[in-house]
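tl;dr need the bound structure. longer version: we got a ligand (2'-O-acetyl adenosine-5-diphosphoribose) that a collaborator sent over and nobodys looked at where it sits. i said id run it. heres the input, straight from their email, havent touched it
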Amino acid sequence: MKAGKIDEHSFIQKLGPDTRIVVLTGAGISAESGIPTFRDAQDGLWSQFRPEELASPEGFRANPKLVFDWYAWRRKKVLESKPNKGHEILALWGQQFPHMTLITQNVDGLHQAAGSQDLIEMHGSIHRLICFKERHPSPWVAAKDGVPLCMRCQSPLRPDVVWFGEMLDRRILEHIGKALANCEVFLAIGTSGLVYPAAGFLDEARASGALTVVINRERVGEDRCDLLLQGSASDILQRLQDSIQARHVFKVSSRAR
Ligand code: OAD
């Protein structure tokens, strides 16, 4: 499939049951579930801290309780929230497009809650803890005076997420690299494109000849993609799904209606 500026109608026409699609989601897809995006969250309660202080090994070493409390606060918001239409449509696309790879930078688990399977959570999950020293897994434990400790080695527990300055799992990156090299359509949804390596996926897909589409509330990546759909992720995904269904070429599960 050849890349070049296209309109929404032509994009829909290119989609078929065998299309190889990679979807990358960011905090914007969960914003409509009431979860503040990483950068929006910096305006409120946590505005006095830089992201690196709240999401880095150095930050955790300097102030483990502050970092633990920040993630506990975010996790509470997640547990109080539900997946939105955008998550639900992507779960449906997982059935409609058997060759779709869904990658998320979000750690909130809302894609799974909506029914997505085979999801790549490239930044980990806020619902799991590991210990700082040995990465021993642990069930979630609430912090009291200090940070909870690992039952096995007494090292402080931290969320099982990828922090600034940490490496992503090599096998996950290889898997993503293969999907990008093979995809015909790449969609980036609700991500600012500021944090690598995910920020480079659009260019990688484009270099492989994929059609690239960005869905964002802001004019993000306009000069790099073939199609920018500006607005709410869930509204736009609903519109795309309506057009897809109108073509009657896909099996539609009753869950989608
Ligand atoms: P950001 O908070 O950087 O960006 C969210 C994007 O979503 C912005 O471009 C918004 O314009 C867009 N947006 C917000 N609401 C939207 C809506 N309703 N519909 C469509 N778009 C909307 O979040 P990410 O790009 O996910 O990493 O951030 C990437 C990574 O940076 C995060 O995974 C986290 C962070 O630092 C780590 O923690 C390692």
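gonna send this back to them w/ a short note. The radius of gyration is 19 Å.
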